[in-house]
Amino acid sequence: MKKIDITLVEDITAFERQLLFDYTHNYRGDSSDYMIRSTRLRAKIVDKPLPSNHPVQMIKKGDILILNEAYGQYKGEVQIALKDRPGDKKINLVGHIPEDRLFEMKNIQRFEDFRFCEVNKQYD
């Protein structure tokens, strides 16, 4: 399984951290050129709050994002930005892929599973 190294924003919530690290993600086959979309979690968290946290004006290539409850049925979707684009208050910025690791995004193919690893942390 592919692993993507990320750094986290300073005030990430425990729930956002759980969404990133406690689950296996999957690159949807119908994703756009702007993002890798992982949607498996949406049904699992439908009854849990996911408020706006760290909204951004501009999304940058390599940003790790979680759609918050303002996004309705898409709440809990995890995205990796492939290109810069405008942000909005319905999208929480939770981390970044370090510049020297951006190549890892290119190694993930559509329909493939992947996991996030926090930079400088050891995982089994």
Short description:
The protein is mostly beta strands and 124 residues long. The protein has helices spanning 14-21, 103-106; strands at 2-8, 25-26, 35-38, 58-59, 63-67, 78-81, 85-86, 91-96, 113-118.
How would you portray this structure in words?
- The chain contains two helices and nine strands; from the N terminus they run βαβββββββαβ.
- By secondary structure, the protein is mostly beta strands.
- The strands form two sheets. A seven-stranded mixed β-sheet has the order 2-9-1-8-5-6-3. A two-stranded antiparallel sheet has the order 4-7.
Give the helix/strand layout.
Layout lengths: L1 E7 L5 H8 L3 E2 L8 E4 L19 E2 L3 E5 L10 E4 L3 E2 L4 E6 L6 H4 L6 E6 L6
Parallel strand pairs: 1-9
Antiparallel strand pairs: 1-8, 2-9, 3-6, 4-7, 5-6, 5-8
Measured by DSSP, the beta-strand proportion falls in 25-35%
Strands, total number: 9
The whole-angstrom Rg is 13 Å
The succession of helices and strands, N to C, reads EHEEEEEEEHE
**Helical residues, percent:** under 10%
Unreliable spans: none
Mean pLDDT: 92
Shape annotation: globular
The largest pleated sheet is described as:
7 strands, mixed
Q: Main sheet: which strands, in order across?
A: 2-9-1-8-5-6-3
| First-to-last CA distance | 12 Å
Helical stretch tally: 2
Structural class: mainly beta
